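A favour, since you know our structure tokens better than I do. Would you make up a two-line entry for one protein for me to read? Write everything out right here, beneath this request.
=====
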Amino acid sequence: MTRRKKSMKSRVVKSLVVAGLLAFSVSALAEEAKTGSVSFWEKTKVMGTLDVNYNYNFNRPTTSATVPPTAAGIPALNAYRVFDANANSFNVGLFELAVENSPNDWMTLRTDLDFGHDTLAYHAAGLGTTEVFDLQQAYVTLKAASIGNGLTFKIGKFVTLHGNEVIEASANNNVSRGLLFNYAIPFTHTGIMANYSFADWIALDLGVVNGWNNVIDNNNGKSIHGMLTIKPVDKVTWLIGGTFGPENTGIDGNIRALIDTTLTYAPTEQLSFALNYDLGRDSALAGGKTNGVADWQGVAVYAHWKPMDSFGLSLRGEFFKDDVGFIAPANLSGTAVASNKLGEGTLTTHWYLADGLDLRFELRHDQGNKTSFAKGSGTNKKFQDTIASQLVYSF
């Protein structure tokens, strides 16, 4: 028998062995199912959300644009918007599919797969370039129940602890995202976090991450990311946290520091209030303050009222101050000059059509201290007014 024939015979034998093992495994799994063993899907949760929306800007800026805009030939957009920068446009904001599996009581694996226009706003550096997809979260949670009241570790990519708003429209009360969520805080982090509850009313999240919105670090330093959760009395929650570390490409010495705090009060299931404040500075920003005053800071107030099962009302008001003017207007057209003081007020109505289905209509006014808001006529204004509608489904 030649070496070739022997090799072929060896491969055949191996194939038969593998086939036999697979058949045995399938048979064993089927037998386990018959005996009532818990399957993979019985340990898995599948969640998701979808939102479609439309907005109209009464300034009528140019609409043929993508976000983020390119450096050349930038058209006019909804200024100081990130998720809804395209004016007069129907839009598929986000389709998210989240899968969470717990193979045992001390480990959980989760991944959030995102598709849609919104991914352009928060896509993390280091995941490649894409126009429709983002791996928003991918992490494993490990629980050490025997350590004190229980110590939990989260390892991988996860959303930030900061802010009162989140990426998913279904978890926010307004159609548009606020100034603080767009500019004052990061969206995601990659690293390791630990959580420990000292008592029922106080817990700490603390960890080390690559930085702001990056999977691959852009320097040799790491950032500290944390949040203290305090529940001093019933129906009141106070979050105090921050992120501290180098965030500039190839530079380890320039530090970006952020302090974020949110106070929420929900006197009833139908009524809730929130107050969010952010204070930040980056030593690398041109013209940055040297006397300890923030490079940026902002405050936002929120109220949500649901007087009946089919209807709700949400209000938001914000003020944002950018000391060094590094947040340019989204339109960058004509003679528009970046405002370093911005305010906005938003009113949103909710029509709850079915379980998980929310139809929203919104009126928003943005005001700046400079002519940052472009008009289609080529002139610029200190304000813009927009209306929007959004249909959100979550499951």
Observations:
- The mean pLDDT is 85.
